[in-house]
């Protein structure tokens, strides 16, 4: 359970994460959601008050202004600040439903992040530069080709592999259930450029895309960092799988 002081923010956080863990085990929540919220709420609890105490020690009935202070203290990283408020809002929504409190102090706390247009889209020249630096046969070439011809999110690209292939309409197809909650099942033809890229790599494993150690990437963040480095090697600044 939890050793935190009863009715404190830390106590509520421990209760909420235990609930979220059970939801993941039941297939009702994403492991990625659990990992992200656990990290964000841990940082919230460690945030210092004006008196030098940790937020986790505060009463869970802390006012809205207390959370606004945490948000504003992270103005240099606005996306993180907004995500932290989002995680806390979800926790308090559950707390209200579970009878731990009657009010959600995060309702009405506004975002401070201003979008700058999202990920930078790749151009045809970007693709040529990447492929020149990472020719067919390289894992980086396969990663780019997989994204080009499946539009798979990074969370799915790291585990897609030969087990998802099947024969249909006298050709080879790829079918998978995206791990994003609520996403529809996907079936698409395994087009020749992707088939060639898959066949050209020397390392073969449970997933198409493997790390330098010959194993699938543990999570999407690690994979995205790896792919970003491959982009840097090709002289492509600000490019990512999301573009």
Report on the structure:
By secondary structure, the protein is mainly alpha-helical. The chain contains 9 helices and 3 strands. Strands 1-2-3 form a 3-stranded antiparallel β-sheet, with no helix packed on it. The longest helix has 21 residues, at 78-98. The radius of gyration is 22 Å and the shape is elongated. The two termini are 42 Å apart. The mean pLDDT is 92.
Short summary:
The chain has 243 residues and is mainly α. It has nine helices and three strands.
Give keywords:
single chain; mainly alpha; three-stranded antiparallel sheet; 9 helices; 3 strands; 47% helix; 6% strand
Which helices and strands appear, and what pairs or packs with what?
Elements: H1 9-25, H2 31-46, H3 64-73, H4 78-98, H5 124-133, H6 139-150, H7 154-157, E1 165-168, E2 171-176, E3 186-189, H8 192-200, H9 220-233
Antiparallel strand pairs: 1-2, 2-3
Helix pairs in contact: 1-2, 2-4, 3-4, 6-8
Q: pLDDT under 50 segments (min length 5)?
A: none
Rg result: 22 Å
In sequence order, what are the helices and strands, one letter per element?
A: HHHHHHHEEEHH
Overall average pLDDT = 92
Total DSSP E strands: 3
